[in-house]
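Design job #97: recover the sequence.
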């Protein structure tokens, strides 16, 4: 009996995302769906947090994403990749959330966001000063990213944070690959301008503080 259960679990872990989703679509298989959630929960949370700028809301949106995927399981086409289907559902929920934020005239910038890469770099930093520098840089980049329009932000997040190829992004967004590349170029241009302006301002502020200390 134990061997049978072990074999069943081993089989489930070895199946692809597409095979697991097909079981969910055709059989409402709870184990297959749980496996998909386990595999993809962290990436989807990361996407939603970076799109909205709110870590906790990102976690909520990730849960909503999987609930939506299960509710729409009959819409899944076996000819496509599961990840494409999943990213698209998550992004659409993020877009809805950003529109609600805009209507409420609330800023998506929240104090409870924690940049995962900043935490990793901070753990490796040798001194408190280095940790502070890395954290400040991560905050500046995060704030700049949130100033991009959502269409540009999505491309940057999918490419640079989630590691998707341009072809994969075009499938997720349902736009030509050339459009993805042009959006990326425009997004990077805007980010460079924002970061240049921000960093110039930070440098000016630091120099002013240094001057104040020298005058004391």
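Job complete. Output follows.
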């Amino acid at each position: 009996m134990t061997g049978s259960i072990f074999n069943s679990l081993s089989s489930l872990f070895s199946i692809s995302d597409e095979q697991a989703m097909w079981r969910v679509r055709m059989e409402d298989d709870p184990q297959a769906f749980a496996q998909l959630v386990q595999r993809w929960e962290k990436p989807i949370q990361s996407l939603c947090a970076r799109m909205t700028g709110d870590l906790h809301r990102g976690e909520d949106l990730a849960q909503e994403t999987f609930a939506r995927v299960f509710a729409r399981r009959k819409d899944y086409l076996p000819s496509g990749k599961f990840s494409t289907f999943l990213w698209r559902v998550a992004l659409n929920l993020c877009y809805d959330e950003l529109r609600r934020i805009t209507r409420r005239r609330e800023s998506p910038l929240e104090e409870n966001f924690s940049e995962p890469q900043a935490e990793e770099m901070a753990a490796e930093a040798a001194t408190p000063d280095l940790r502070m520098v890395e954290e400040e840089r991560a905050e500046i980049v995060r704030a700049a990213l949130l100033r991009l329009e959502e269409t540009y932000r999505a491309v940057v997040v999918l490419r640079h944070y989630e590691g998707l190829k341009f072809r994969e992004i075009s499938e997720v967004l349902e736009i030509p690959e050339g459009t993805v590349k042009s959006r990326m170029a425009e997004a990077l241009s805007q980010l460079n301008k924002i970061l240049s302006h921000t960093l110039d301002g930070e440098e000016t502020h630091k120099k002013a503080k240094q001057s104040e200390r020298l005058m004391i």
